[in-house]
Inverse folding.
């Protein structure tokens, strides 16, 4: 009984049969990050994976883009360390988007189809830096989780163009309090 065969790559199936454990594939091992705490799969012109983590040999976080070939490219660094980023994919508005992200501390960011990143700004209203959670649903970006306004939900407005669509740069408060 103490001479059991090494079976680390096996698991027991529903009918008590042995089957091979599902494997993992190494896509990239970015040398610029010590650890990763936020991931987002972006399906833009080419599929990319956004990763946020602690910079190697620094006390800040950075955002990197990993392409399908496994190449890691730094988009921005010197971000507040340890803050989880929340990302959504929505229509492009002006020169911003289609990827938008917040972490509740640093200025909100957008990522373009070409891979450029910048501070996400509002054309009407403001995009507070204190919001930590985003959701894209029904042609609207919803933001909540503000430390300044707990329980408040904000949403993106609609453009005034001939082809109506969501404008992630227009933000207005929707609900002042969420609770019982």
């Amino acid at each position: 009984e103490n001479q059991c065969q090494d079976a680390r790559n096996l698991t027991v199936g529903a009918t008590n049969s042995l089957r091979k454990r599902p494997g993992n594939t190494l896509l990239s091992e970015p040398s610029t990050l010590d650890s990763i705490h936020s991931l987002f799969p972006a399906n833009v012109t080419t599929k990319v994976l956004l990763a946020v983590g602690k910079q190697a040999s620094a006390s800040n976080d950075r955002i990197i883009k990993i392409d399908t070939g496994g190449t890691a490219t730094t988009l921005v660094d010197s971000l507040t360390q340890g803050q989880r980023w929340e990302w959504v994919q929505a229509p492009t508005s002006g020169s911003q988007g289609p990827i938008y992200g917040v972490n509740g501390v640093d200025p909100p960011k957008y990522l373009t189809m070409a891979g450029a990143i910048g501070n996400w700004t509002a054309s009407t209203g403001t995009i507070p830096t204190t919001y930590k959670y985003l959701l894209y649903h029904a042609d609207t970006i919803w933001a909540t989780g503000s430390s300044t306004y707990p329980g408040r939900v904000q949403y993106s407005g609609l453009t005034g163009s001939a082809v109506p669509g969501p404008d992630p740069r227009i933000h207005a408060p929707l609900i002042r309090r969420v609770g019982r």
Remarks:
- Residues 44 and 67 are 11 Å apart (CA to CA).
